[in-house]
Amino acid sequence: MGVSEDFSRLSSMLPDFELELYLEAVQQPLPECVRINTLKFDGREVERFLIQRGWRLEPLAWARHGYRVLEAPAKDLGNTMEHLLGLIYIQGPVSMLPVETLEPGRGERCLDLCAAPGSKSTQIAQLIGLQGVIVANDASKKRIRALSFNLQRWGAVNSVVTLTDGRLFHRWGAGLFDRVLLDVPCSALGIVSKDWGALRRYRSRHSEKLQRLQLSLLESGYRCLRPGGLLVYSTCTIHPLENEAVISQFLEKHPESTLEPVEHEGLKGRRPIEEFSGERFSPEVAKCFKCYPQDNMAEGFFVARIRSPAA
Ligand SMILES: C[S@@+](CC[C@H](N)C(=O)[O-])C[C@H]1O[C@@H](n2cnc3c(N)ncnc32)[C@H](O)[C@@H]1O
User: Each residue of 90-102: pLDDT tens digit?
Assistant: First the structure.
């Protein structure tokens, strides 16, 4: 598999990175996983129905309602009646961790600032129940169609879809939300099994540009929190400029905020790095979750949990 010069350089700069294991892992298809819809159905009934239809499922330790698919009635899960009816949502296993880290509670007001195509918004919708509300925002007109369709398929009548630049959202939403999810645009180097060309096309200037966008989105999302509210920042990349560096710079600007540890029972993670390319990160960053694709033979992810100060 060909990788760009910039990716090759990046891999040699990461002290804990095993390039061969990474390349081996990203050449495997992602493990097939689903989430069962408990918003418009009784979860146990869905489970019984799926078993009758020939599904064999194994629960994921780190995600309520998340399962690994051991057997299914069709090769392409997206073509099953269960998917079409909104009984299940097809989602990568590690991708379910950010919302579990956000811990949305029944009846809460939540914001998903970069929401399309909606895997995490639908997950939040089912955890807050019908008394809560999830505002699912995205800046892409094209991607918002899939977001709306997926929320509708999921029966998420507790959702509101907005189309705006998330960097400006605080102008309307400051202080309004109990929880904010920031699953930001990133270089996606943790899920290249979906697009191997990404490794050939990768240039380091992409990460530098993305970092500026990520920091602005994080700032806007943080302002949308009520006092004592919780924000989760996540990416599906392995690049420290988009992960540790963003959180470290944010903490420096916001010493009043608290970084909280991320629980990840059942998922293998690694200690975030302390320094990259001459930039030393806050030691607090060790509380974040980080994994590479080779760790769980699944997606690579980075997840941080930030609390705003109580009033
Ligand atoms: C990693 S994807 C989100 C995936 C989604 N959270 C999910 O789980 O299905 C990042 C999203 O950010 C959106 N985006 C990019 N720039 C944005 C901006 N300035 N404001 C809001 N959304 C933006 C992209 O259109 C894309 O849908």
Answer: 999 999 999 999 9
